[in-house]
C-alpha cells in the first residue's frame, strides 16, 4: 500500500543494508519499507530472501542518481524517512577508477537530498522527517599509534572512496544547515558479518583458505582497523535514526582494534577447527601457512579507531558481540554458503 508511512532505504541489497532491513523488519513487523538498489556487482536480492515475501516490504531496482525515478518514488509513496546506505564501497576499486564513486556517493546523495527536501517542504515536514546518511570513519583520515577519531575530528580523506563519502557528508550537513532539514550522520568503523561481498578482507581470507590458495595480506599486515559486528551496527543505526539529534554525527565503533594479520590468524584458527577437511589442499597443519604478504595498497591508511562515547553516553547504545564469537558466526556462515560450491 503506497499511502502508508514508508521508510526509504537505499542500497539495501548490499552487505550492511540487507542486514539492516532483515533486522528492521523483524523488530518492526508492521512498518512499511521501500528498498531502492541498483544491484551493482555488490548488491544481490539473495541477501534479502527473508524479507522478500513480506507484503510490507517493497523493492525497486533503480539508481539513486536517476532524478526522475527518485522524484517519482517521493510522489508515489509517503516517504517519512530515509536511511541512505547506497554507495560504491570498495577502496581498491576507487583507486582503479573513481568516477562511479563520485557519481553514486556524491551526486546520488545530492539527488536524494533534493528529492526529500522538495517533498517534505511541500508537506511542511522538513524539520520532522529524517534523512540519515550512513558514513564511515575513513573520512577522518589516518591515525598514528595513539588517539581516536571523535565526531569533531576534521575530515581528512586519503583515498577517492573516503573523499567521496566526506563530500556526501558535507552535502548532507549543508542541507541541514541551509534548509533546516532533519539530518543525521553515523560514521562507523569496519563492519564484518554475514552477506559481505567476497572482495572484502574477511570473506577473502575465508575463501582463499578454503580453496587452499595464498591468503593475500597487504604490506606488513600491521594496519589497524576497529571491527564492528554488522548486527551491532544495525542496532546503532536504529538507535540513531530514532533518537539521535538533528544535525549531529555519531561515531559507531566495535572496540575491537586489530591488525590485519591478527584478523587473518584468528580466522585461520577458527577454520582449523571448523573445516579441517579443506586443509588437505595445504601441506601444513594450519591454514595460517597460506598467509602471504603482497604489495601494499596505495595510500593505505595505517590506523583507524573511533571514539564513540557520544553514542554510548547520550543514546545508551553499546556493542554486544565480542570479536571471537562474531568471527566464529561469520566464518560459520561463509563455510555453509560456500560448501556446496567447493569440493575438498
Ligand atoms: P556494499 O557495497 O555491500 O553495498 C552497496 C549497495 O549499494 C549495493 O547493494 C549496490 O548495488 C548499491 N548501489 C551502488 N550504487 C548504487 C546506485 N547508484 N543506486 C542504487 N544503489 C546502488 O556496501 P556496504 O558495505 O553494505 O556499505 C553500505 C554503506 O555503509 C556505504 O554507504 C558505506 O560507505 C558505508 N560503510 C560501510 C562500512 C563497511 O565496513 N562495509 C563501514 C562504514 C560505512
TrEMBL record:
Alphabetic keyword roster: Lyase, Membrane, NAD, Transmembrane, Transmembrane helix
The enzyme's E.C. designation: 4.2.1.46
Catalytic activity: dTDP-alpha-D-glucose = dTDP-4-dehydro-6-deoxy-alpha-D-glucose + H2O
Keyword Transmembrane among record annotations: yes
One Pfam family this sequence matches: GDP_Man_Dehyd
PROSITE patterns with a match to the protein in the record: ADH_SHORT (PS00061)
Record SUPFAM superfamilies: NAD(P)-binding Rossmann-fold domains
Domain NAD(P)-binding as annotated: residue spans: 8-329
TM region(s), chain numbering: 6-25
Enzyme class at the top of the EC tree: lyase
MF terms in GO: dTDP-glucose 4,6-dehydratase activity
InterPro entries: dTDP_Gluc_deHydtase (IPR005888), NAD(P)-bd_dom (IPR016040), NAD(P)-bd_dom_sf (IPR036291), Sc_DH/Rdtase_CS (IPR020904)
Cofactor(s) this protein cannot do without: NAD(+)
NCBIfam families: dTDP_gluc_dehyt (TIGR01181)
Family: Belongs to the NAD(P)-dependent epimerase/dehydratase family. dTDP-glucose dehydratase subfamily.
Protein name in the entry: dTDP-glucose 4,6-dehydratase
Source organism of this protein record: Virgibacillus natechei
